[in-house]
Amino acid sequence: MPTLVMKFGGTSVANLDRIARAAKRVAVEVANGYDVIVIVSAMSGKTNELVGWVNETSPLYDAREYDAIVSSGENVTAGLMALRLQEMDIPARSWQGWQVPVKTTSAHSNARIEEIPTEKINAKFGEGMKVAVVAGFQGISPEGRITTLGRGGSDTTAVAFAAAFGAERCDIYTDVDGVYTTDPRITSKARKLDKIAFEEMLELASLGAKVLQTRSVELAMRYKVRLRVLSSFEEPSDSAGTLVCDEEEIMESNVVAGVAYSRDEAKMTLISVADRPGIAAAIFGPLSEAGVNVDMIVQNISEEGRTDMTFSCPTDQVKRAEKAMQDAKASGAINFHDLVADEGVAKVSVVGIGMRSHTGVAAKMFRVLSAEGVNIKVITTSEIKISVLIDRKYMELAVQALHDAFELEKAG
Ligand code: ASP
Ligand code: MG
C-alpha cells in the first residue's frame, strides 16, 4: 500500500475537538487506501510551558533532563490521537520516538536524526494496523537517552519519516493555508503560492518565514520528499495549500518568488582590526564557539594595515558576541579599537530561482529602495537571494515596495 505522512502542528491538536477534527482527515486518507503515518506536535503552548518549568527549576539545566521533560508534550497528543482513531474503528497505535526507534545524535535539545528503521512499523502495517501515530520532535541517542530535535522539530520528524518510508507525500497541517509571497500581515497583496521550489523554501525558511523548520526543508530537498503545507481548518481539496517540490515540477514562475524579512537583526562593527592573514578566523572562530549565528559579513577597505569588520547577528545574541570579542581581545588573539553595535536594523530579502537566469534583480531592488529613501547598510547575495540590512523603521515599507515592484500579487 502507498504510504502518506500527515503532520499536525500544535494548533491542529490544541484540544480534544481539534484532535477529533484532525483524526477525521486521517480517516479520509485511510479510506483513500493509504497506510498513514501521523506525526503530532504537542498541544499549542505546551512545549513553552514545559521549557518554562525547566528554566524555573534549573537555569543551567542538564540538557538530558530538558529533553526528557520537553519531549513529553508529544507523547500525550500521540496517545490521544491513537485513541481517537480507535474510537472511529481505525486500527491505530502510538509510537514514542524510542519505540521506533528514531535514532539521533547525542546533541541534546538540538539532535539530528541519523536513522529511522522501518521494520517495526512496517510489520504492524502488515498485521493490519492502518495508522501509526508517532510523537514528533523526539528520538533516542546512542547512549539510550531521550533527545529532542530543536524547536519546531516535528516538521523534521515528518519529513524524515516520509523519506525513510518512501511516502508519496508529506502533508504538513498547520494554522496557515500555505506559503505566501510575503507575510500577509505586512501587505494585503501577499498571494498564496500553489507551488514553490525546495531551494526557494529553504531560503524563505532560513530567512525567518516560520511556516517550516529549516532543517525539514533541507531534508525534503535532499530526499526529494514532496511536501504540502496546508491548513487543518480549511475544507480539504486538491488545490489546497502550497506544494514544496522540485523546480522541475514548476512550469512557470515569477523571477522573484517571495520577499522575506527578519526584524530582530543587529549590525556589529569591529573598528580598526589588524588586516593580516588569519584575522577572520580569529574573529569568527570565537563567535561561533560562543553560539553566535553570524549572518552577513563585510570587511571594509584597509588602510595602513588596519580595517573595519562588520557582521550581523540576531539582536538577542549581541551580548554574547560582545563578550566573545572582549574575551578574544583580552587573550591577545585579536586587537580592535572599538566595537559598535547597531540594534535597530532589519533584514529584507528577495528570493527566487529565476534569478539564476535573469540579471538585473539586484539593480531593481536597490532602485526601489532608493526611490523610497531607504538607505542600505549591508548587502549580501547568493545565487537565488539578495538580502539587505536597513533601518528597522523602514522594514514594512521596504517589503511593500518590493512586493509591488516585482508584481508578486500576480501569478507568473
Ligand atoms: N512541540 C515542539 C515545539 O513547540 C516541536 C514542534 O511542535 O515542532 O517546538
Ligand atoms: Mg511548527
TrEMBL record:
A single GO BP: lysine biosynthetic process via diaminopimelate
Sites where the protein binds ATP: K7, F8, G9, G10, T174, D175, Y180, R185, K210, V211
Keyword Mitochondrion attributed: no
Annotated keywords: Amino-acid biosynthesis, ATP-binding, Kinase, Lysine biosynthesis, Nucleotide-binding, Transferase
Its EC number(s): 2.7.2.4
Top-rank EC class of the record's enzyme: transferase
Gene3D superfamilies the record matches: Acetylglutamate kinase-like, VC0802-like
Catalysed reactions listed for this entry: L-aspartate + ATP = 4-phospho-L-aspartate + ADP
One annotated GO molecular function: ATP binding
Pathway of action: Amino-acid biosynthesis; L-lysine biosynthesis via DAP pathway; (S)-tetrahydrodipicolinate from L-aspartate: step 1/4; Amino-acid biosynthesis; L-methionine biosynthesis via de novo pathway; L-homoserine from L-aspartate: step 1/3; Amino-acid biosynthesis; L-threonine biosynthesis; L-threonine from L-aspartate: step 1/5
Source domain of life: Bacteria
ACT domain segment(s): 268-353
Family matches, as InterPro entries: AceGlu_kinase-like_sf, ACT-like_dom_sf, ACT_Aspartokinase, ACT_dom, AKii-LysC-BS, Asp/Glu/Uridylate_kinase, Asp_kin_monofn, Asp_kinase
One GO cellular component term noted in the UniProt record for this chain: cytosol
Chain positions recorded as substrate binding sites: T47, E74
NCBIfam families assigned: asp_kin_monofn, asp_kinases, PRK06635.1-2, PRK06635.1-4
UniProt record similarity statement: Belongs to the aspartokinase family.
Protein name: Aspartokinase
